[in-house]
Structures are given as C-alpha cells and as structure tokens.
Amino acid sequence: MLENAPEGVDVIGTHPMFGPRVASLDGLVFIVTPARGGKWLPWLLEFLKAGGAKVFETTPEEHDEIMSVVQGLTHFTYIAVASTLRELGVDVRQSREFASPIYGLMLDLIARIVGQSPQLYASIQTHNPLSVRVHETFIREAEKLKQAVAEKDEERFKKIMIEAAKHMGDLDSAMGRSDKAILALTEEFKRLKGSVGKEVALRHIYSGAVHVGTVVEVTPDYATLETRGRHVRLKLSNVELLEEKFLQQWHLENLPRKSKSRDFSALFPREAEGGVIASLLERSIPGVVSARVIDVYEAEHLPEGKKSITFRVDVADPSAFEEVTDTIQGLGARLR
Length: 336
What we know:
- This protein is α+β, with helices and mostly antiparallel strands.
- Among the domains are: about 55 residues, Rossmann fold, CATH 3.40.50.720; about 100 residues, no CATH class; about 80 residues, Ferrodoxin-fold anticodon-binding domain (Alpha-Beta Plaits).
- About 45% of the residues lie in helices and about 25% in strands.
- It has a five-stranded antiparallel beta sheet with strand order 7-6-5-4-8. Strands 10-11-9-12 form a four-stranded antiparallel beta sheet.
- Helix 2 runs parallel beside helix 3.
- The chain is elongated, with a radius of gyration of 29 Å.
C-alpha cells in the first residue's frame, strides 16, 4: 500500500484513466492520490497539466470506491458479455452485418477491453476489495430483469428501466454525446466513399504516418489508395481522414519551389483593407494555402485615391494562380 513506503519518501499514486495506445496526454484524465506528498508532487502536477491532462486529486479510499464502479463494474460487465458471446457460439463478424450502430459500438468497446492485458484487468478486479459488492449488486439487478422477462412482466420491466433512467440524470446530454460517437463512425466512411477517384490524405492514428493518394476503393473495413504507382490498403479503424488544408499544405511542401508562391501587386482604392482581401483569396479559392499582405505603397505618382497592395500567395495547385488573378481583377483592381 502507499502508506508502507519508508519515511521521508514521497508517496504519490497516479492512475491514468486510459490505455497505452493514446498519442498524447491532451484532454486525458489522471487521478492523483498523494498519501504523503513532498517536493515531487508540485512537479508531477505541473508536468501533467502542462501536457493538457485533466488532473483530479483524491484520497486512496475515495479512489478505490469510485474505481470499483468506473472500472470494476465496466470491465466486469464487458468481459461477461464477451464471455456470453463465446458461450453462445455467436459469430461476431456475422452479427455486425445485422447490427444497429449501438451494437457495433458496444462490440468495439468490448473488444478494446478483452483485447488488452488479461493480467492488468485481473489485477484491477481482484485488488480492489470494494469491487465484490459492486459485482454482487450488478448480478442481483440482472436477476431482477431476467425474472421480469421470464415471467413476461412488462410492467415490472418498464418500472426498472424508468427508475434507472431517472437515476442517470441528464439524458439529453448523454443522447447527444452518443449520437456524436455514432455519427463519427459513419461520417468519415461516407466522406471517403464520396472521394473515390479523388486525392486524399489519411493519417495512421498510432504511427502518425500520412498516406497521400487517390482513393481507388472503399469497403466497410478498408480504403485502398493509389500512390506513386502502387496500391496501399489501409484499415479504416486505424486511420483518420485529414482536412483539405492539410492536403494543400502537403502539396505546397512537395511541389517544386517555383510553383509554391507568387507575388501579386495591384492598385486598389485607398480605403481598401489588404487583410480582408488576403483572407478572401485564401478562403474562397481552392488550392490557395495562404495569402498575406507583404507591402502597401502610397505615392504621389499613383493615380489619385489609389494605393498599391502586394500579396504573397502560396498554392498547392499552380493552376490556382489564374483564379487569384481573376479574383483580384474582379474586385475592380488593376494588376501592376
């Protein structure tokens, strides 16, 4: 236990609420239980917060009580469901073909648990003495539901469900969060399906490697890209579709230098706002990665009421330069 460490030694328990597959600390939860903190506690807290983690301090007793539910109940339930599927001989892959979004999401969450270290999860269950009471309560409540179903007692079933719903609190927010999770599973797939024949950038969520290529085929499980004359098959669960701006930036960094940027000077009315015009060029023209004002010039020899503004425009596609020219002239300016 934390209290058994030698006197004079900092004793700080830290419990990350996530597995080793995450890429950064940003937005993740750490539970800190300082049984006997000293010089290292401020350093630890600062380190975690600097990484963007959400840090909560508590006592070892409170930690064990909460974790008996957060982990003890969750893991116990999911492992029991996985074991039930095995015992019933359910073809999990085939069942996904008939699945609702919630069932598919549940299978992914279960697989995330049972696919990790059995020793770790066994320790979480067996080393927290409060988990036994939670397990017993869960089994007792499951028996109540089982009995209501067996006896075809719909009123009793509904009463159990309604009372549970009341206890859950803000159901609307929970519905919203779960809707987002379900939409996230399908929205990216739809975008990829609509990108067949187009160029995209996919980033591997674990290695960070970025694959740029033309989408050849998209199935529920894989996307195939043609890149540099060869086909690359990527598992959809392991990649994320990057935004168009990233793809433009990638082109900017990989095109020959002369194709990347060009300066445009034009005469505008003196009241014209160069920053606004640059923003218009950047936001409205596909292929433009960035546009910025690099010079503003006013002199007597310029036409009355006019000033010269010079923009530096970076593009991913050199053909965009022609549209930049057309847009500037369409604003009533005269290129110099």
